[in-house]
């Protein structure tokens, strides 16, 4: 085990999305994991077991905060109470990274609990940049913005997603979170080439990579329709895209997300090991044999 | 003229909320044509995610009526009320009241109260931390002192009163397998508290519940005891105070009743 920890290049081993079902096993076995990521909103209660466990985990590992409810892509103003809750969490847990989505979820009608798509045009760009700047100012730190998994596009979109994200990063100084599974899901759903997307992606701004599983279905015309459900292992095609991405990116912090149909801890941990191996190979292709031996255990 | 971002989002939400409404015309599929099937993914995600959140918060309520019935009832609630904030741990505070008015659930008259108990449980689970007062510390006070004290109760404390044996029903559904019905169908007053890591449920006698309600309202021990005595002439205040401290329900004692009263009057 200690040999493996020393052998991995890059800033960190891959991280894993933290689930309540795995709290105890993680604390008892202290597995070699680079960091744990939590959905910020799940830790916004005043107290109780979620904070007790997260504190115990934070005392052993770096933690990153992933927000799902800030609604950065909404036209309406950001909820300052929610920003304040995020600030409190950042102060308490001193996360390695803070990320949110290029999406919206709040409206006068209420909180919609999904990452809804935005049209990519100048008007949205201005609004999103204002919101990102407001977030970075309130939190006093740089944030990462994640590319969404989308099922539709908008008639009003006239800027490609990669250019849209690059413009936000350039204007606000924020980093980007490249979700490789989202790239593939959107590519299949919208009919674009995921490799061409990755070639155009502004890699210099990437601060984190996400990997997850998706579900496969079909629309009424029989075309493939992928659903970003985080309910299975990372698909082979997404691992291939990941290899392609990290060859350009270098060993950026990488996270395995698995939120539904949760497997046991060993299975989830093995996915993180697979990401480590891919990053290791990307960083030092000649050590491939050693890597195989080390991971086989 | 092209619609604004606000107009696009208003239309998107209106179509999300009303399955009878067509998908927004500016939402396109891969062939650049309006695509209802793909828009339906969002419609489904919103409802499915919120129904799951309710199921996670009200697991025994769901077990009592079965998954299918529960999910239909939860979908109706989602249509009635969206969360006000992204804190899903608070979503469904109004669900018990919705259940009470939900005609198809009338055959299970205790369902709404059981949901109130589960709401209390999750509120207690997420409540602020506080170190409970020990029985030993309480014992250091003279009874004369104590009578004038107000108590700061634990922030995780909740009371749920029902004409039905809701805590007994709740407990019998905590493990999988066969459920035995309550031996007697009696009203239950339940105190929910999480002094440390675990939420605990305790049955209170009727007078004990009156006592805790009066304490929670900020009355000094003596006045709270009088409220309890009105329901039970045998009420033993010392016994109940030690009992509450033993449950970890008391955080601190605040003596000097007079200044507190003055503050109340002048504020």
Walk me through the structure:
The complex is a heterodimer of chains A (about 300) and B (about 270). Chain A is of the alpha/beta class. Helices cover about 45% and strands about 20% of the residues of chain A. In chain A, strand 3, helix 4 (about 80-95) and strand 4 form a beta-alpha-beta unit. In chain B, strand 4 and strand 5 (about 200-205) form a beta hairpin. A three-stranded antiparallel sheet of chain B has the order 3-4-5. In chain B, helix 3 packs antiparallel against helix 6 (about 110-125), helix 5 runs antiparallel to helix 6 and helix 10 runs antiparallel to helix 11 (about 220-230). Chains A and B meet through helix 3, strand 5, strand 6, helix 5 and strand 8 of A and helix 1, strand 1 and helix 2 of B. Strand 8 (about 155) of chain A pairs antiparallel with strand 1 of chain B.
How is this fold's topology laid out?
The complex is a heterodimer of chains A (297) and B (267).
Chain A: H1 2-7, E1 15-17, H2 23-29, E2 36-39, H3 49-58, E3 63-66, H4 80-93, E4 98-101, E5 104-107, E6 110-116, H5 122-139, E7 144-146, E8 153-154, H6 161-172, E9 175-179, H7 180-190, H8 194-200, E10 206-212, E11 215-218, E12 224-227, H9 236-249, E13 254-257, H10 265-283, H11 288-296
Parallel strand pairs in A: 1-2, 1-13, 2-3, 3-4, 4-7, 7-9, 9-10, 10-13
Antiparallel strand pairs in A: 5-6, 11-12
Helix pairs in contact in A: 2-3, 5-6, 8-9, 9-10, 10-11
Chain B: H1 5-17, E1 27-28, H2 36-57, H3 59-65, H4 67-80, H5 95-101, H6 111-126, H7 135-139, H8 143-148, E2 150-153, E3 158-162, H9 166-172, E4 188-193, E5 200-204, H10 206-216, H11 221-229, H12 237-246, E6 250-254, H13 257-266
Antiparallel strand pairs in B: 2-6, 3-4, 4-5
Helix pairs in contact in B: 2-4, 3-4, 3-6, 5-6, 10-11
């Amino acid at each position: 085990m200690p040999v493996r920890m020393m052998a991995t290049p890059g800033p960190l081993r891959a991280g894993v999305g933290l689930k309540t079902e795995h709290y105890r096993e993680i604390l008892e076995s202290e597995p070699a994991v680079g960091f744990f990521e939590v959905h910020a909103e799940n830790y916004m209660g005043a107290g109780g077991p979620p904070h007790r466990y997260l504190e115990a985990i934070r005392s052993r590992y770096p933690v990153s905060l992933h927000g799902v409810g800030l609604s950065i892509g909404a036209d309406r103003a950001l909820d300052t109470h929610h920003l304040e809750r995020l600030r409190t969490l950042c102060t308490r847990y001193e996360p390695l990274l803070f990320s949110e989505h290029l999406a919206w979820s709040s409206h006068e009608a209420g909180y919609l609990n999904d990452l809804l798509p935005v049209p990519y045009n100048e008007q949205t760009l201005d609004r999103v940049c204002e919101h990102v700047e407001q977030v970075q100012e309130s939190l006093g730190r740089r944030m990462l913005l994640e590319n969404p998994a989308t099922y539709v596009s908008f008639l009003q979109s006239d800027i490609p997603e990669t250019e849209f994200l690059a413009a936000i990063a350039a204007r606000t100084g924020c980093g980007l979170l490249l979700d490789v599974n989202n790239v593939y899901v959107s590519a299949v759903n919208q009919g674009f080439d995921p490799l061409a997307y990755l070639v155009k992606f502004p890699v210099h701004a990437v601060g984190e990579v996400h990997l997850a599983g998706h579900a496969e279905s079909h629309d009424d015309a029989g075309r493939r329709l992928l659903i970003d459900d985080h309910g299975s292992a990372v698909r082979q095609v997404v691992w291939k895209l990941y290899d392609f991405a990290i060859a350009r990116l270098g060993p950026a912090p990488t996270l395995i997300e698995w939120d539904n149909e949760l497997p046991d801890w060993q299975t989830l941990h093995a996915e993180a090991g697979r990401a480590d191996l891919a990053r290791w190979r990307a960083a030092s292709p000649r050590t491939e044999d050693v890597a195989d031996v080390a991971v086989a255990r | 003229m092209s619609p604004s971002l606000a107009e696009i989002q208003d239309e998107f939400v209106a179509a999300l909320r009303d399955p009878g409404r067509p998908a927004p015309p500016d939402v396109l599929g891969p062939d650049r044509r309006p695509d209802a099937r793909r828009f339906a993914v969002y419609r489904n995600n919103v409802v499915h995610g919120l129904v799951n959140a309710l199921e996670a918060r009200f697991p025994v309520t769901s077990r009592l009526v079965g998954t299918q019935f529960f999910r239909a009832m939860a979908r109706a609630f989602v249509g009635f009320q969206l969360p006000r904030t992204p804190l899903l741990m608070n979503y469904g505070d109004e669900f018990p009241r919705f259940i009470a008015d939900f005609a198809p659930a009338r055959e299970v008259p205790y369902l709404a109260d059981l949901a109130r108990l589960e709401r209390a449980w999750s509120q207690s689970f997420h409540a602020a931390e506080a170190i409970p007062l020990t029985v030993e510390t309480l014992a250091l006070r003279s009874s004369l002192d104590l009578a004038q004290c107000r108590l700061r109760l634990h922030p995780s404390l909740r009371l749920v009163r029902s004409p039905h044996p809701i805590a007994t029903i709740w407990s019998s559904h905590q493990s999988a397998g066969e459920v035995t019905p309550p031996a007697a169908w009696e009203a239950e007053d339940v105190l929910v508290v999480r002094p440390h890591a675990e939420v605990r449920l305790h049955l209170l006698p009727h007078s004990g519940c009156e006592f805790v309600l009066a304490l929670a309202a900020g009355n000094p021990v003596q006045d709270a005891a009088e409220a309890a005595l009105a329901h039970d002439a045998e009420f033993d205040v010392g016994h109940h105070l030690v009992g509450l401290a033993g449950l970890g329900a008391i955080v601190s004692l605040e003596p000097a009743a007079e200044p507190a009263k003055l503050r109340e009057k002048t504020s």
